[in-house]
């Protein structure tokens, strides 16, 4: 059933300023609650799970190297580790995939009828020995349902993208158009340099 938004906003405009402020504040808290429940908390769990799996892989690989004399067992463990690593790579992109991922974020905003006021990738932040965090400052303009749609699209991406530091304010007093400022955090594997001896063998 279609909702008459004009009639809805007319009713709101006739309310007292205090009531309008309370309605707006309630809408903002609802958006933040939806974001936290649907996107931020699940993605944070995904990252923790991946890190735990990768830690286990490092231990398994180290143990496998000590058992080099048992060729068949070593090969089996190596194949399993490679399979787990390929699975993890579906969630954390490589360096070459980052530009495509950033374009996907802007497309999600455009498809949600949002106007980008700012989209600025920032300096990468190394995290421990496994991955690198890539922060992107974002500022968009649009309705609250458009912002919710944008966050939902980000949450459904194949790659991990977390949205943090969300701030939502109206463009001007009593306006239903909002300016949303946030930071998108995506991640990539820290690519390890091969030992000099291995590089020379390949030449």
Can you describe this structure?
The chain has 203 residues and is an alpha+beta fold. The chain has one domain (5-189): Alpha-Beta Plaits (2-Layer Sandwich), CATH 3.30.70.60. Helices cover 55% and strands 22% of the residues. It contains 6 helices and 5 strands. The chain has helices spanning 5-13, 17-66, 71-89, 98-111, 144-155, 196-202, and strands at 115-121, 125-127, 131-142, 161-170, 178-189. Strands 1, 2, 3, 4 and 5 form a 5-stranded antiparallel sheet that branches. A hairpin with a 3-residue loop joins strand 2 (125-127) and strand 3 (131-142). Helix 2 (17-66) runs antiparallel to helix 3, helix 2 (17-66) packs parallel to helix 5 (144-155) and helix 4 runs antiparallel to helix 5 (144-155). The longest helix has 50 residues, at 17-66. It is elongated.
List the helices and strands and how they pair.
Blueprint lengths: L4 H9 L3 H50 L4 H19 L8 H14 L3 E7 L3 E3 L3 E12 L1 H12 L5 E10 L7 E12 L6 H7 L1
Antiparallel strand pairs: 1-3, 2-3, 3-5, 4-5
The CATH architecture name reads: 2-Layer Sandwich
Give me the CATH fold name: Alpha-Beta Plaits
Count of extended strands: 5
Number of domains: 1
The largest β sheet comes out as: 5 strands, antiparallel
Structural class determined from secondary elements: alpha+beta
Per DSSP, what share of the residues sits in E-state strands of 2 or more residues? 15-25%
Along the chain, the helix and strand elements come as HHHHEEEHEEH
User: What share of the residues lie within helices?
Assistant: 40-55%
């Amino acid at each position: 059933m279609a909702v008459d938004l004009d009639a809805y906003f007319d009713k709101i405009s006739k309310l007292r300023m205090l009531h309008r402020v309370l309605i707006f504040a309630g809408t903002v808290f609802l958006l933040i609650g939806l974001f936290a429940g649907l996107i931020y908390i699940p993605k944070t769990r995904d990252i923790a799970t991946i890190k735990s799996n990768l830690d286990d892989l490092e231990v398994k690989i180290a143990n496998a190297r000590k058992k080099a004399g048992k060729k068949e067992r070593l090969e089996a463990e190596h194949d399993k580790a490679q399979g787990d690593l390929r699975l993890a790579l579906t969630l954390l992109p490589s360096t070459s995939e980052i530009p495509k991922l950033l374009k996907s974020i802007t497309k999600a905003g455009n498809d949600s009828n949002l106007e980008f006021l700012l989209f600025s990738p920032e300096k990468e932040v190394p995290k421990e020995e496994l991955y690198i965090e890539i922060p992107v400052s974002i500022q968009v303009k649009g309705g609250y349902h458009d912002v919710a749609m944008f966050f939902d699209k980000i949450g459904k991406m194949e790659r991990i993208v977390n949205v943090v530091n969300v701030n939502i304010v109206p463009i001007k007093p009593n306006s239903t158009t909002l300016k949303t400022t946030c930071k998108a955090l995506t991640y990539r594997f820290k690519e390890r340099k091969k030992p000099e001896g291995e590089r020379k063998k390949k030449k």
